Amino acid sequence: MTIIKLNRKFVFAVGLIVSIPAVWYGIKYFETGVIKLDQEHKDKGVALNPSTQSINRYFSTLRNLNKVIPEIDEHKKQLSLVVTDEKNKSQVVAAGLNIEYLVPLLPYPHSKRADDFDLTNLMLAEYARNGISLSYQEKNRKFGVFNASANMFNSKEEYIYKAGQIMPNSDVKPVRLNITNNCLKPGLWEISASDTVGEMYHGWFKFPKATYYKMIRSVNNIDVSNWDLGWALKYKKDIRNVEVKLDRLREAGTIVLETRATINKKKMLGSYSSQDSRRKAQKGYFSVVRQGEKIFPANLSELKKGDRFEMHKFVSPGVYSPSDIQTVHYDSDWKNITIRKVKPLTRYPGGTTKAEDTGYLELTFAKDNAQEAIVVGNI
After folding, report:
1. Most C-beta atoms within 10 A of its C-beta, which of 109, 155, 232, 355?
2. At 154, is the secondary structure helix, strand, or coil?
3. Of 170, 191, 169, nearest to 182 (Cα)?
4. Is the pLDDT at 40 greater than 60, yes or no?
5. pLDDT (average), residues 57-65
6. Are residues 214 and 68 both part of a single domain?
7. Displacement of CA 152 from its chain's centroid (Å)
8. At 215, is the secondary structure helix, strand, or coil?
9. SS3 for 100?
10. Residue 301: helix, strand or coil by DSSP?
11. Section 248-272 average pLDDT
């Protein structure tokens, strides 16, 4: 998604960027490669997290692992993470991770010498969520996998009976391992694991800067110094001096339709497509305020321009805070629609690089004031 200021050079943003100045050098309390646990806020003793939490959330034997050692295969463009304890007796190894899924990409034609447009796109992609989810396997040549030291886990259920009571099974084997490049702090990564019930483990660690810069240069084939790359990845709230070069992302074709949009007023609030988003709505992660009073609209027809959505803020190191609130005002003025044919120039990991027979479209949603527009392209 691209937001453009039409009355100047161009201003753009990809996705929803949270206005929190986060810089690499601000990570002071995270040591490189050292895992920190229990960073979330809690509500009634439970982690404030939209994911379902397992009974093993604070009991897993994974909590004994406290450091991460990254290993890079530059030829294959793969990353492996060895997660181990202080004495290297127990290990979980995530191997064969495609680096392209973990770092910001420039998925369009560009030269080795990155310009302002390229560096700004890297910054915007850095503040998006890059990550990969792995299944427990001994070996897989095509996809990344994770496995563990012998006898580290057992094959029992998530809970056990002891003295007639249900107790957590701290040695239960995780079925999924998630590696996430945190979207709030460049250089801060997360590692989490789930059993068949829900999330059983969650830790944060600082990734080595020099290794991270090397990964970005390698997958994007750019020649940028560590210093310049570090500066480029710092969050910049105002990027109005950077020109959007849409012609580097697609070849513009004919206009298919110009029209006015109407809102589906029967659309229910909180009826999201993703399970995590539905959980956030169900757990009250947002509320609607009108003239200082909370209201409880059931659908879009009950909203008025200026209504304020208040949401739990996603704050450093990447957790939801019930005390820090982010506000967004309801605005339905994006009604002037232009649809045109385009030929994408973008690429994505594992994806095609040219338009299929059905073709691709670009949608522009412009405000009545003709000063701002949202462009969603290469659909």
Report:
1. 232
2. strand
3. 191
4. yes
5. 92
6. yes
7. 30
8. helix
9. helix
10. helix
11. 89
Q: What pLDDT is attached to residue 355? A: 55
Q: Which SS3 state, helix, strand or coil, does residue 240 take? A: coil
Q: Please indicate, yes or no, whether residues 376 and 310 belong to a single structural domain of this protein.
A: no
Number of structural domains the chain divides into: 3
How many C-beta atoms lie closer than 10 Å to residue 42's C-beta? 12
Give the span between the Cα atoms of 236 and 116, in whole angstroms: 13
User: What's the gap between Cα 374 and its chain centre?
Assistant: 20
Examine the pLDDT at 314 and tell me if it is beyond 90. Answer: no
Q: Is there a single domain that holds both residue 5 and residue 109? A: no
User: In Å, what is the CA distance from 138 to each residue of 145, 199, 205, 295, 296?
Assistant: 7, 22, 25, 52, 50
Instruction: Give the domain range for residue 129.
Output: 20-233
The pLDDT, as a whole number, for residue 15 is: 32
How many C-beta atoms lie closer than 10 Å to residue 31's C-beta?
Answer: 12
Parallel, antiparallel, or unpaired: how do β-strands 188-194 and 199-206 relate? antiparallel
CB burial readout 2-12, b (16+ within 10 A) else e: bbbeeeeebbb
- 188 and 80 in a single domain? The answer is yes
Residues composing the chain:
379
What's the chain's average pLDDT? 83
Q: Higher confidence at residue 294 or residue 348?
A: 294
The string of pLDDT tens digits covering residues 157-176 is 988 888 888 889 999 999 99
Residue 312: both structure tokens together: 């739990």
Residue 188, CB-side half-sphere exposure with 13 Å CA sphere: 25
Residues 217 and 360 in one domain: no
Q: Name the region of 170 (left: φ>0; alpha: ψ -120 to 50; beta: rest).
A: alpha
- Residues 305 and 263: their CA atoms lie apart, in Å, by 13
